[in-house]
Specification:
Elements lengths: L5 E17 L2 E14 L5 E6 L4 H15 L8 H10 L2 H14 L19 E3 L5 H12 L7 E5 L5 H14 L5 E5 L6 H11 L5 E5 L7 H8 L4 E3 L1 H5 L10 E4 L1 H4 L3 H9 L4 E3 L6 H15 L24 H11 L1
Parallel strand pairs: 4-5, 5-6, 6-7, 7-8, 8-9, 9-10
Antiparallel strand pairs: 1-2, 2-3
Length: 332
């Protein structure tokens, strides 16, 4: 009898170094599952399931319960490919990532070596914490050769307060810097137009990220005619938009499904894709780093969104999957 693949699953949890506040609310706890897929030859593939919101967490928990029932069975690649096709996006990412490594599409002798993470954009906190965070970054960045890229979470506090903070930010941000404003779908069209009128013509503006609600494609197209616009949550709800949206796309691999198609796109040099974190463990972060490095080699290189300093230190965030796996056992 031919031996098949063996799948192991472990839960994990960790706390971010600070609370993340945006238009959708505030959170700090990260919970998910790690996958270890072993082939008959002994080769291991590693995956991570890291849903962000509570609804997706419940969907993934049901899928993981089903997968856990197969852990004592001998599985084929076809078995797992069927799960990839029907699973929630975060589960499909974990399975696809593990399969890609077993199939030597990345990280093996027949595939690409894992690439290190490029320099990241810096994530600024929402509201009144932003000025102190930016001042620290500017003090640290004086010795850096590359321009500073910052991303500020907006639509998270009173509009009048954010306008005041915007003026301070624009006065403080160096000329060579790049600015991303992320509303997480929290603006109406009228509010977005007001921000566009203020920002239009500022060479530091790299893009507005998901300024309007996730279904408002027409509104986003209207804004794109005046300033650069990147879609994020809208692409996850409407994956077909990835085929024809002409602006930037913020891609969060660990949330959107099987990473192998995105891997092929970046290898082929598809433009205007920016890779961003969903605050993964070291296993998911290893994939994010590799994909971001491929993006930087393409026709529209830009700093990825890795949120440096927001995740804690420790073995669960290691780039060595064996260390991450061992750390999750200690948590379990």
């Amino acid at each position: 009898m031919t031996m098949g693949l063996r799948l192991q699953i472990r839960p994990y949890s960790f706390v971010l170094t600070r609370s993340l506040r945006n238009a959708a609310g505030e959170w700090q706890q990260r919970r998910g599952w790690l996958l270890r897929l072993q082939s008959p030859s002994g080769r291991c593939g590693w995956g991570e399931v890291s849903p962000l919101d509570s609804v997706e967490q419940r969907r993934c928990a049901r899928a993981m319960t089903e997968l856990a029932g197969t852990s004592s069975q001998s599985l084929t690649e076809a078995d797992l490919e069927r799960h990839v096709m029907v699973s929630p996006g975060a589960v499909a990412f974990g399975l696809g990532a593990a399969l890609a490594e077993v199939q030597e599409l990345v990280g093996g002798a027949a595939g690409e070596s894992w690439l290190p993470a490029p320099s990241s954009a810096q994530l600024l906190p929402a509201g009144g914490e932003m000025p102190a965070a930016l001042e620290r970054l500017l003090a640290e960045d004086l010795a850096q050769d590359h321009p500073l890229t910052v991303k500020w979470k907006v639509a998270a506090t009173a509009d009048a307060e954010e306008w005041r903070l915007l003026e301070w930010l624009r006065d403080s941000l160096p000329r060579r810097s790049k600015l991303r404003l992320d509303a997480n779908g929290g603006w109406c069209r009228q509010t977005a137009q007001r921000w566009v009128e203020s920002l239009q013509g500022d060479p530091r503006l790299e893009w507005l990220e998901q300024p309007l609600m996730v279904d408002d494609l027409e509104g986003h197209r209207s804004l794109l005619a005046r300033v650069p616009v990147a879609l994020d949550e809208g692409l996850r709800k409407h994956p077909a938009w990835r085929e024809h949206w002409p602006g930037w796309q913020v891609r969060r691999p660990s949330l959107e499904g099987d990473p192998r198609p995105l891997l092929r796109q970046l290898q082929q040099g598809v433009p205007r894709l920016m890779l961003s974190t969903a605050f993964e463990t070291g296993i998911g972060a290893r994939w994010l780093a590799h994909l971001a490095a491929l993006q930087l080699q393409g026709p529209t290189p830009t700093a990825p969104g890795l949120a440096p300093g927001w995740s804690p230190q420790g073995p669960l965030l290691s780039s060595d999957p064996e260390q991450v796996w061992a750390a999750s056992e200690a948590i379990g």
